[in-house]
Every structure is written in structure tokens, then in C-alpha cells.
């Protein structure tokens, strides 16, 4: 009796054909029900992904107000991507493929963008698509629209109304007479006949919609200067009301500067009156600042000294050109511990004094590369020193006129200099060839010779000495190398103000 053999479909190709059936592996094949593919949270690599934002409430605004709100929203959206395009009067486009992993995928980016709209008291519908026009049409349709792959784009666009493309009403009416009310129905029409009847430009719109043609968009550029105006709730000359109206403007300025990683060196707070000319309060800074709280504190100092001709009815904040600023991390040490944060506290103090007393009330000392003590420093504006200290660790400016420090010999044995230099060297009396000042002086250490200045006609040839007086005060004096070899006092260490000669 012949037993029929069963061929194993999964046996190797070189297996013998006479293999007994009972030795073949028992393989059970069951049909598997198709399962839905897992939803992708990010777009495929290399495929653009556009976020379309539609703000329906802007249709009821005036053209000026709608444009202002749309630009404010675009400026806020710069934290998501630099590729932003306006779609006036009520739309915005963002290319966000490279930003998804920074904001938790599509859902995270959707929540973040909705939060930015809420900050402007606006409600928006959002849509994701591989082409900008598809993302905009999906957002205008007002229904959930999220397409991350080009292969699914045409099928997802099919049920959307043709009105989402914002074609002229006359054209939409003609299509409706033909029974074409959705984008899918328009895509199924013959291309040649569609172009002949409705125009090649509308066919090009469909090609840009589905990705068959490129859709270049003009990139949004945020305004270079900050300028905002706000009407006051009532006419008032109250300092509290004026500062309260200033705070929101400064908060907006802080966000404006943070988006550009810049600071400002000048601010103008302008107050408008009914009958008088506008009152201007100008704040000039020595180092670029971007912190809204710090700017508010400085500007309020200036407002306290402002006299208004009459109550103000509106206010306006204007900022100078944004300038790059160096952002420093906080140090390990607290203020006063090994010099920790001394520079920051010094800069804050100088800025507050300038705001309260005026920019001309303060002066600073700067080093000059010259060995002559009286020529090794000069008076400058504080902003020159603040600008140099903004990106470098703070160094005390005591003894800024010291020639050894100016010449880069800080490690030399003659690098010690007194704290106080006299405006002009003071001639000393001498006895037996030794100097005297309020009694006998005791010279210490070896002399330091400074001989320079021949090129500008103010040459010197001196031997400098460290000395102590009878009370233990340290003095810095020199002896002329040319006859009559006089002695002069040039610097001293002050213990109290009465020591000033």
C-alpha cells in the first residue's frame, strides 16, 4: 500500500525528495488578521514637515491689528524653528521636521504652539503635512489633520472642502455646479481639461498641494528694532501707574531680546500728552542688558527724576539696535568669597548710579600702556570699562595707573604700587641728601629705575623708592637722576582721609 507523501514547503532546497513524511517538521500555518500599523510620532528622515496655524479670530480684526498679531505670533514661534512664513491674513507656516525631537514629537510641539497662541489670547487650529499648502488647508478645514508621510497625503486631502484652498468664490461656485466640492474630487478631474477650464494657476496649486511641484515660501524676518505703544487706562501723572504700564512692555522686550540672544544699550520711554509735546525718558547703558526685571529697575530710577508738563495718556517703549551679549554662568563662590561674582555686583551698582544720577555723573579709569605713572591712566566713560568687563572675570581697578601693571610685569618685585597717586608729584624737603615728609623717612628695598618718554618731549629719568614714615605709612617717592637730584612724593597708602597731603 502506497502512502501519499506530503511535501514540506519550508524544507531546504537540497533536502532529499524521498524523505519520509513522518520525519518532516510539523508546521502549522494560521492566517493572521491584519493589524493597524503603529502611529509614527516623527516624520521620516529627509521628508519636510510643515505645521500650519490658522487663527480664525483674525478675520474679524482690522488689517493692521491682524498683521500685528500674526507677526507677534511668528516672533514667538521662532523658538521652534527659524523657517517661518506668514500666510496673511490669518495663517502661519513653520517647517518643523528638525525640531520634533526637541519638543517631544508632534503632540509635544502641538501643545507648545497652542500655548504660544494662548499667550496672545488667540485660539488656533493646527495641522501637520509634508507640503506647506496642505498644512495650511488642513488647518483651515478646522478638523484634525496630521499627515507625516507623502504617500498618505493625497488620500488624507481628499475629504477636505475645496474652500480650504481659498480660491475665488466664483471659481468655487463653478466647481460646485459640476459636483466638485472636495479636494479629492478636484484631483480626479482630467488635468488638461481642468487647466483649460479653470486656469493653469489652479492646476499648479493642486500640484503644490500634493507635492508634485515645489512651493517656495518667503521666510519671515522679525523686526530689527523693538517699538511698542500702549494706551493708559486714564490720564495720569502717577509714578506708580506709569511704571505699571511699563512692566508689560519690558516683559515683551525681554522675550524679543531672548529670541535673538542679544541685549540693548539704549532705551527710550516716551509719554504722550493731550496738549504738550511728548516727554522722553532716555536710559543709556554701559553693557548690553536683556533682563526685563533689571531694565525695569533702571528705567524706574530715571522716571523718578522726570517732571511731566501734564498727565500722560499713552506710553511707548523704544529700544536701540540689539547688540550681541556674552551670557556667563554663575560662579561656584558666593559674592565676597574668593572674589566670586564681584564683577556682576559692580556692574549692577554702576548701572544703578548712572540711572539715578545721569550718564555724565560717573567717570572711570582705564589703563594706558605707559611706564610713567602720571601717564599710565586716563579718565573714560564707565561704559568703556563695563564693556571690557562684561565677558571677562572682574579685576579690581585699584592702582590702575601703575606702570608695572600697564607694562605687563605684574610678577616683578617692583609691581607693588600705592593705592593713591597724587595729581602732581610733591617736592620734598631733604636733609643730608635724604627726603623728609612730616619727619624722617625710612627707605625700604632696592630702587626701581624708570627712564622713558623721550619720543614725546616728556621724558623722565627717576629712581623710585618705597619708604615708611614715622607712623608706619607706606610712601612711594622718587629721586631725579639729573641734577639737582630732588626728591618727590608721588603716591601713598591712605589709612584715613586726613592723610591726604
**Helical amount:** 25-40%
At the first level of CATH, the class of the largest domain is Alpha Beta
Radius of gyration: 39 Å
User: Which superfamily, in CATH terms, is the homologous superfamily of the largest domain?
Assistant: Reverse transcriptase/Diguanylate cyclase domain
Q: Work out the helix count.
A: 13
What's the CATH topology name of the largest domain? Alpha-Beta Plaits
Q: Quote the average pLDDT.
A: 79
Can you walk me through this structure?
The structure is a single chain. By secondary structure, this protein is of the alpha+beta class. It folds into 4 domains: about 50-210, Reverse transcriptase/Diguanylate cyclase domain (Alpha-Beta Plaits); about 225-325, DNA polymerase, Y-family, little finger domain (Dna Ligase, domain 1, 2-Layer Sandwich), CATH 3.30.1490; about 365-410, no CATH class; about 420-500, no CATH class. The chain has 13 helices and 19 strands. It has helices spanning about 65-75, 105-120, 130-140, 155, 170-175, 185, 190-200, 200-210, 240-260, 290-305, 340-355, 380-390, 405, and strands at about 50-55, 85, 90-95, 125-130, 145, 225-235, 260-275, 280-290, 310-320, 325, 365, 375-380, 420-425, 430, 435, 440-450, 460-470, 475-480, 485-490. The strands form 5 sheets. It has a 5-stranded mixed beta sheet, sandwiched between helices. Strands 6, 7, 8, 9 and 10 form a 5-stranded antiparallel beta sheet that branches. A 5-stranded antiparallel beta sheet has the order 13-19-18-17-16, with no helix packed on it. α7 crosses α8. The radius of gyration is 39 Å and the shape is elongated.
Amino acid at each position: 500500500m502506497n502512502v501519499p507523501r506530503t511535501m514540506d514547503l519550508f524544507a531546504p532546497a537540497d533536502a532529499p525528495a524521498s524523505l519520509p513524511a513522518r520525519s518532516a517538521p510539523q508546521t502549522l500555518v494560521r492566517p493572521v488578521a491584519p493589524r493597524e500599523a503603529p502611529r509614527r510620532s516623527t516624520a521620516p528622515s529627509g521628508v519636510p514637515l510643515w505645521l500650519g496655524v490658522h487663527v480664525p479670530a483674525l478675520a474679524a480684526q482690522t488689517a493692521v491689528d491682524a498683521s500685528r498679531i500674526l507677526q507677534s505670533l511668528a516672533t514667538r514661534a521662532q523658538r521652534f524653528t527659524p523657517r517661518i512664513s506668514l500666510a496673511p491674513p490669518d495663517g502661519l507656516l513653520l517647517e518643523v521636521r528638525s525640531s520634533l525631537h526637541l519638543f517631544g514629537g508632534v503632540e509635544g510641539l502641538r501643545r507648545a504652539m497652542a500655548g504660544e497662541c494662548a499667550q496672545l489670547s488667540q485660539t488656533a487650529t493646527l495641522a501637520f503635512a509634508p507640503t506647506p499648502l496642505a498644512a495650511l488647508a488642513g488647518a483651515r478645514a478646522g478638523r484634525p489633520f496630521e499627515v507625516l508621510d507623502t504617500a498618505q497625503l493625497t488620500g488624507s486631502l481628499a475629504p477636505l472642502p475645496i474652500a480650504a484652498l481659498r480660491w475665488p468664490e466664483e471659481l468655487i461656485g463653478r466647481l460646485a455646479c459640476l459636483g466638485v466640492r472636495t479636494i479629492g474630487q478636484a484631483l480626479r478631474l482630467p488635468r488638461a481639461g481642468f487647466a483649460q477650464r479653470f486656469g493653469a494657476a489652479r492646476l499648479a496649486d493642486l500640484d503644490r498641494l500634493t507635492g508634485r511641484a515645489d512651493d517656495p515660501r518667503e521666510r519671515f524676518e522679525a523686526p530689527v528694532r523693538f517699538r511698542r505703544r500702549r494706551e493708559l487706562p486714564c490720564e495720569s501723572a502717577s509714578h506708580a501707574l506709569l511704571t505699571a504700564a511699563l512692566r508689560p512692555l519690558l516683559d515683551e522686550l525681554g522675550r524679543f531680546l531672548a529670541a535673538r540672544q542679544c541685549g540693548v544699550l539704549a532705551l527710550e520711554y516716551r509719554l504722550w500728552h493731550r496738549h504738550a509735546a511728548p516727554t522722553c525718558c532716555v536710559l543709556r547703558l554701559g553693557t548690553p542688558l536683556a533682563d526685563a526685571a533689571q531694565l525695569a529697575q533702571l528705567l524706574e530710577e530715571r522716571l523718578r527724576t522726570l517732571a511731566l508738563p501734564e498727565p500722560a495718556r499713552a506710553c511707548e517703549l523704544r529700544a536701540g539696535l540689539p547688540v550681541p551679549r556674552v551670557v556667563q554662568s554663575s560662579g561656584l563662590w558666593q559674592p565676597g568669597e574668593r572674589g566670586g561674582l564681584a564683577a556682576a555686583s559692580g556692574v549692577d551698582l554702576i548701572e544703578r548710579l548712572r540711572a539715578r544720577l545721569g550718564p555724565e555723573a560717573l567717570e572711570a579709569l582705564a589703563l594706558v600702556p605707559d611706564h610713567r605713572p602720571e601717564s599710565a591712566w586716563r579718565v573714560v566713560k564707565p561704559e568703556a570699562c563695563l564693556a571690557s568687563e562684561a565677558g571677562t572675570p572682574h579685576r579690581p581697578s585699584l592702582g590702575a595707573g601703575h606702570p608695572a601693571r600697564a607694562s605687563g610685569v605684574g610678577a616683578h618685585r617692583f609691581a607693588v604700587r600705592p593705592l593713591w597717586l597724587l595729581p602732581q608729584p610733591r617736592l620734598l624737603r631733604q636733609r643730608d641728601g635724604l627726603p623728609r615728609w612730616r619727619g624722617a623717612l625710612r627707605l625700604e628695598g632696592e630702587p626701581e629705575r624708570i627712564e622713558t618718554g623721550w619720543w614725546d618731549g616728556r621724558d623722565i629719568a627717576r629712581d623710585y623708592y618705597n619708604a615708611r614714615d614715622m607712623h608706619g605709612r607706606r610712601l612711594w617717592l622718587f629721586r631725579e637722576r639729573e641734577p639737582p637730584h630732588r626728591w618727590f612724593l608721588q603716591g601713598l597708602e591712605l589709612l584715613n582721609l586726613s592723610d591726604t597731603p
